[in-house]
Amino acid sequence: MVSCVAEITRGSLIFFEQAETYGNTVSNLIMILPPIYGALQTFKNGLEVRYVLSFLGLAAVGIGSWCFHMTLQYEMQLLDELPMIYSCCVFVYCLYECFKQENAVNYLPIALLLFFSITVSVVYLQWKEPVFHQVMYAFLVAFLVFRSVFIVTWVYPWLRALCYTSLSVFLLGFVLWNIDNIVCDTLRATRQRLPPVVGAVTQLHAWWHILTGLGSYLHILLSLQIRTTYLKHRPKVKVSAASSGHYPLKEPDIDAIPADSSLVSCESRVISFSVLTV
Ligand SMILES: CCCCCCCC/C=C\CCCCCCCC(=O)N[C@@H](CO)[C@H](O)/C=C/CCCCCCCCCCCCC
Ligand SMILES: [Zn+2]
Q1: In a domain, 261, yes or no
Q2: Counting atoms of ligand 1 from 1, which one is nearest the CA of 163?
Q3: Structural domain containing residue 102
Q4: Which ligand is nearest the CA of 88, by number?
Q5: 160-189: per-residue pLDDT in tens?
Q6: Which of 142, 176, 194, 244 could staple 204 via S-S, CB 3.0–4.6 A?
Q7: Nearest CA to ligand 1 atom 31
Q8: Considering the entire predicted model, what is its pTM?
């Protein structure tokens, strides 16, 4: 499948294509700034390094994607496509090891995920087939989807809203990415007839960046919430959107826990993240 962005790289850049390039570049900020903030907060709260790496991995994808859309060079495209695989592997590790002891390191999944990442990188560098990268990435995302749905169905049902919001936002981005690839030429021709502002906000590839960036960020928050709840830190992840108040997370009622419960003596932490407080 030839993507809309790949089409641009082959042609000469005219005004509308330049505008498209700016939109696709700037939209990566959503994948860069909130994750850097998340990494700092995670580090400051003394949480496990794997979550700092998750946030930094997402920021690395955003920076790689920024470089690619700014230059439209194949080498730069690898700077976002390979980190997509690596950061997803970190997410998979976090979610599959979330019911283990604090700071416990399990070398078998690390070895398997490293092997997977190296194999995908080597094959992709030789074969250069985008569909191969897409299938490998989708395989990792499917793992995350099944695992998180399992956890919110059977273990922490009060986290269902966060899980399904992250999933829906991510999948909506994926739908827009497909539409953009399938009807690329029609969309571009239509946009050129629209006022520049309308044209700017209808760039579906830029929306794919925004929605997958946001969906992935929410996924890290979900993973972190699952982990800290399991470790009995009793966190309160407060997700606030621009001006729309707080995300309706329902936690179990801590007062309902008997006073002699081991839960009460455990450390209580409040972790507050903002998604888009800019
Ligand atoms: C429960 C929600 C799961 C969230 C998973 C989060 C995984 C996040 C990992 C990394 C973040 C990536 C954000 C996307 C950045 C896109 C940058 C970009 O546009 N790159 C292009 C080049 O510039 C590149 O060519 C695009 C590749 C797209 C590959 C899309 C593959 C399809 C994935 C769809 C998976 C759906 C699976 C559903 C299974 C039930
Ligand atoms: Zn892109």
Answers
A1: no
A2: 1
A3: 2-233
A4: 1
A5: 999 999 999 999 999 999 999 998 888 888
A6: 176
A7: 134
A8: 0.84
